[in-house]
Write a structure and sequence with these properties.
390 residues, 8-stranded mixed sheet, A_deamin, single chain, 9 helices, binds zinc ion, double-stranded RNA adenosine deaminase activity, A to I editase domain-containing protein, 20 strands, alpha+beta
């Protein structure tokens, strides 16, 4: 196991400040109204300055707090299923990495070693989240326990049903220990994100971040050309509970027998003094979470999506299902970008992912460990769509 060096309080505050300042500079489109709140997350590049790992650039950013239910998904890869800020920021980072790979020399943050791109030794990757991640990190005893995200959107307690057209049919969702009401306060479990009236197919942000400590944040497709890109620091704002966060992100991850190049990383945790004023803790009690997600990547490209549909904001009815108007962070568009950026092979998205052989092996090791065995795997047909020019 590799552990990052300590980070100063000043650096933690700076990571939060830089993210919030960047958020404030964005146009109002998609930002919460006076009666709304949201979650803000970013990935940040750090460099050692006077013996301190110091944030130097925000690479990507995301806002949002919604996730589509199973009945809202399609198998075309043209909508965003999971619009939690952490996941939007991570997809924006992946999109940015496609561009970064083309850079050379001092402008590049990666360098090639043994045929794969690696983050240069002078850099580290950090993450800021304005609110404790949903799932295991948000389960703790204390004054904050009543206001965690898990509590705000309880799933139906009884049989889950979903309406399709005029008929009603039972969903085929797998029930997990973490979904059962009697286990809602049990710690250490993997669990799915709650949706509106039914569970989603997406794992909680706590679970996904924990998986990055083994797999890296780059995903299967980029792993074909890139060594795992590990997170060194995680700085969390509202409802920060160090023990719960450490358990959710670090301590429950136990893996052995990872393929070469992969290892478990202990992520350094911290809490900034600065508060995100559009977050839940600063909102009025009757405020609701925003229905939009904003994505941003270094260079100034941002996009707003409607989290409840996973589509771009402001589309006309005619353009709703047009591939051309799919969000930039949809799997379909990211697959196209991967092909353009480094010639990623594969006709379909799932074929592209299969190129990451060691990544898949590492994921199998993680998901066969007792703590992650109940991870909900999205059926492969959801990734079995053609990646073709539009
Ligand atoms: Zn989340």
């Amino acid at each position: 196991m590799v552990e990052a060096e300590e980070m100063s309080q000043r650096s933690m505050d700076k990571m939060a400040e830089m993210t919030i300042q960047l958020y404030e500079r964005l146009a109002p489109k998609g930002k919460p109204t006076a009666r709304e709140w949201t979650v803000l997350a970013s990935f940040c590049l750090l460099q050692k300055i006077e013996e301190n790992w110091t944030p130097v650039k925000i690479l990507s950013m995301g806002t949002g707090n919604r996730c589509l239910s199973e009945s809202q998904l399609n198998k075309r890869g043209d909508i965003i299923h999971d619009s939690h800020a952490e996941i939007i920021a991570r997809r924006s980072l992946i999109r940015l990495l496609y561009d970064e790979l083309r850079k050379e020399g001092s402008k590049a943050i990666f360098e090639k070693k043994d045929d794969k791109y690696n983050l240069k030794d002078i850099y580290r990757l950090g993450m800021y989240i304005s609110h404790t991640p949903c799932g295991d990190a948000s389960i703790f005893e204390g004054p904050s326990v009543e206001v965690t995200l898990e509590e705000t959107e309880e799933p139906e307690k009884k049989k889950r049903r979903v309406s399709t057209d005029d008929s009603t049919q039972e969903t085929t969702q797998k029930r997990m220990r973490g979904d059962e009401p009697q286990n809602w306060r049990e710690t250490g479990l993997v669990r799915r994100k709650p949706g509106r009236g039914e569970f989603t197919t997406s794992m909680s942000c706590s679970d996904k971040i924990a998986s990055w400590s083994v797999l890296g944040v780059q995903g299967a497709i980029l792993s074909t050309v890139m060594s795992p890109l590990y997170l060194s620091y995680l700085v969390v704002g509202d409802y920060y509970h160090r023990e719960a966060l450490d358990r959710a992100i670090n301590l429950r991850v136990r893996v052995e027998g990872l393929p070469e190049g992969y290892s478990r990383r202990h992520i350094r945790l911290g809490h900034p003094v600065v508060v995100f004023q559009k977050g839940k803790s600063a909102a009025t009690t009757d405020a609701v979470s925003s229905g939009y997600a904003i994505s941003y990547m270094d260079g100034g490209i941002s996009e707003v999506t409607v989290a409840q549909s996973g589509r771009k904001m402001g589309l006309t009815k005619k353009n709703l299902d047009s591939p051309k108007h799919a969000p930039s962070l949809s799997k379909m568009k990211l697959g196209l970008m991967a092909r353009q950026a480094f010639g990623c092979k594969g006709e379909t998205y799932i074929e592209m992912k299969r190129g990451g052989v060691d990544y898949r092996r590492a994921k199998e090791v993680l998901l066969s460990s007792s703590e992650f065995r109940e991870w909900n795997r999205l059926p492969s047909e959801h990734s079995d769509f053609q990646i073709k020019p539009i």
